[in-house]
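Final paragraph of the annual report: two paired records, presented back to back.
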Amino acid sequence: MRFLVIGAGMQGSACAFDLLSQPGTKGVVLADRDLGHVPAFLDRWKGGALDLLRLDIQDHQALEAAIRRADSVLSAAPYHFNADLARVAVKAGVHYADLGGNTEIVFAQKQLDAQARKSRITVVPDCGVAPGMVNVLAAEGIRRLDETESVKIFVGGLPQQPEPPLNYMVVYSLAGVLDYYTSPGWVLRDGKRIQVEALSEIEHVVFPYPVGKLEAFHTAGGISTMPFTYEGKIRTMEYKTLRYPGHAAILRPIRELGLLATEPVEVDGCRVRPREVFIAAVGPRLTRPQGRDLIALQVEVRGKKDGRPSGTRWQMVDRYDEKNGVTAMMRTTGYSLSITGLMQLDGRIAAAGVHTPDECVPAAPYVEELAKRGIVIEETRV
């Protein structure tokens, strides 16, 4: 199996690490315009199974040439590139998956379905944690029921040792986090699809010690197209982000005062975007190179089976990998992408075309693959 991983940032590097750790992998090409920050945990494969490729993905000729040399292409590039990347992969007849995160782009990728079927390849967008892992679990919960009443999903990337005032550290792009804090999210209410304000409707979710009680609030993009797929079929469906208690109470007034706005304002004769200033000022204070992170996840699906109330709850807490220096966010997100690519090639994701994870990824082998990597998802009946 030969893989092209696009994006040599944290998630792409973790994806490459996991692929290189698999016995069936013949080679991985890790491609990016900037290869100056490839992490040390990949050093053991340099000059062997790992090739580093300097690539401008907006150069479609060079991109297509790189894709045609692979059996599968996995994108950890910023989401706004994913529609073009999928288009080039389908043209080349090569399996494709990405981390996604933008529902409109997923719908654009869905337009490639007929061409992908004709080429007998699979295209799977939104293959991270949320969207991604949570979609696979939620779909499995829905399949187990005769009638599904509610799907509630909670995910958060957090520091193991929280520090005030935000009790947060950067575990992926701060710009991406702020997008989710300022964009409305799709939910199902009374079976109808509506949008709700980010950072709203706070509730609490309890995880085993030492994580304890976390707060949850609405953010955008966490469950991909599922509210569209299940509109009129499920009464309640929602995704919320997890943080330590008190986080939203600080971020809401910051947002309402305009400090996260993207429209320029004039300061001493200069036009500046408040959000860029916020990121420049706050980002370094939330970046902790020696910090250790965790990912907390809960998916709960309730309804009826054989006329009786039934349901399933999945819960996971994954932590920084001390041995290899791989963060929990990198493990859960990058490994989810790599597992999807492996399952595309070995036939466990079989249906040709463009499908989101909830539509095509079988839950049992997916969860088993995560467990092999030490990412353990606990399942209980509710």
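The closing record of the year follows.
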Amino acid sequence: MTSLSKTRLIPDGNVLVGSLAGDVDLITVRDAADQLVQAVPTTVSDLVLDLSEITYLDSRGVHILLEAIERLRMRGQTTYVVAPELSAIRRLIEVTGVTDLVPVVGSVDEALQQIRARDP
């Protein structure tokens, strides 16, 4: 079952790191996307969404995740997607154009470094 399984606040309180794990498909993704948006407080400036523990993601799942990311963007929040460089998930999000819409990085640390560089 897919869930927002690991959510932790980075100590400065401006960034939330969330992870989705398991299979993300048409049946499970809507709930996961809603959980994601509800879990992100409006006081957070950035979300780092770690997809490295997803075992399956279909194109409909990508679409609904993008809808959630757009809802966060409308609240003024930036999402960084984490997908390991050589993973099947990374190839899928590249093919579906996610990399054109949001920053996609290889690790949570890389996302945090980019956020810190942007907001010194």
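Residues 3-118 form a domain with the Transcription Regulator spoIIAA fold (CATH 3.30.750.24). This concludes the annual technical report; the extension proposal builds directly on these records.
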